[in-house]
Amino acid sequence: MNRPIRVLVAKPGLDGHDRGAKVVARAMRDAGMEVIYTGLRQTPEQIAEAAIQEDVDCVALSILSGAHNHLFPKVVQLVNEKGGDDILIVGGGVIPEEDIPGLKESGIAEIFTPGTPTAVTIDFITQNIKRD
Q: pTM value?
């Protein structure tokens, strides 16, 4: 890949806390990735549209509100419907361990919970994006 990895960092739903997303976004940027941050309170439709318009390699969803079981799969569905089935989608935030298998079955490649080192997230994205 001759260009930097492009990552869309998004906060779906009504979650109004984005400190963790900003920390991860900055670490990704410092690792040489191009990062697009959508801001707070995005709908799954807005996130999917931005992912396609920005031609990203990865969508990194962050949620703390507890609505992950509804919002994460919806983003996956909409991204795929818009032709982005080659886009890696990962999630992070306060997500109970028992919810992780279902999220992975829905198309989320990996879930990163609080305390995960940013290097782990960056390494996962780097190793799992679909390269041109």
A: 0.96
